[in-house]
Amino acid sequence: MAARKVVARLSQPHLLGIEPLSIEDIELVLATAQKYQTRTAHETRPVSRNDLLAGKSLVLAFFEPSTRTRISFELAADRLGMDVVNLALEASSVQKGESLLDTVKTLVAMRPDALVIRHQASGVPQFLARHTSVPILNAGDGLHEHPTQALLDALTIRDHKGRLDNLKVAILGDILHSRVARSNIHLLSKFGARIALGGPPPLVPKGFEKLAPGVTVCHELDQALAAADVVMMLRVQLERQREPLFASPAEYARHYCLTTERLARAQPDAIVMHPGPFLRGIDIAGEVADSSRSVIPHQVENGVAVRMALLELLAGGAS
Amino acid sequence: MKPLLIKNGRVVDPASKLDARRDILLEDGRLAAVEAKIERAGAEVFDAANLVVAPGFIDMHVHLREPGKESAETIQSGARAAAAGGFTAVACMPNTQPANDTALVTRYILAQAAQAGGARVYPIGAVTKNLAGEELAELESLRAAGAVAFSDDGHPVWNSRILRRALEYAAALNLAVIDHCEDPQLAAGGVMHEGDCALRLGLRGIPALAEELPVTRNVVMAALAGGHIHLAHLSTRGALEVVRRAKRAGVRVTCEVTPHHFTLTDEACREYDTRAKMNPPLRTADDVTALVEGLADGTVDAIASDHAPHTPTEKQADFESAPFGVIGLETAVALALDKLFHASKITLPRLVELFSANPARILGVEGGQLKVGAPADLTVLDLERKWTYRAAEGVSKSRNSPFDGWSFRGAAAATIVAGVLVFRR
Question: Interface pTM (ipTM) of the complex?
Answer without folding.
Answer: 0.93
